[in-house]
TrEMBL record:
Transmembrane segments: none annotated. It comes from the Bacteria. Pfam families: UxaC (PF02614). The keyword rRNA-binding does not apply. Its EC number is 5.3.1.12. Keywords: Isomerase. This is Uronate isomerase. GO terms for biological process: D-galacturonate catabolic process; D-glucuronate catabolic process. One of its GO terms (molecular function) is glucuronate isomerase activity.
């Protein structure tokens, strides 16, 4: 996230979990080809059962809300 220019408060600072999730969602599209992209979607699928959605700013709210 830091490499993507995300402010430190959204990485490890005092931002809310939802704000941090939104910052991660904005970063995920830039990780295609990196294992983090695949791990993110495995984590959405395995514990939460979320399939068929790619985490991005456009889907962050609909993915966060059911959780």
């Amino acid at each position: 996230m830091r490499t993507n220019g995300v402010a430190e408060r959204l990485c490890t600072g005092d931002a809310s979990d939802r704000e941090k999730f939104a910052a991660w969602a904005a970063t995920v599209p830039h990780t295609i080809g990196n294992p983090l992209y695949h791990w993110t979607h495995l984590e959405l699928r395995r514990p939460f059962g979320i399939t068929g959605k790619v985490l991005s700013p456009a889907t962050a709210d609909e993915i966060w809300d059911p959780v």
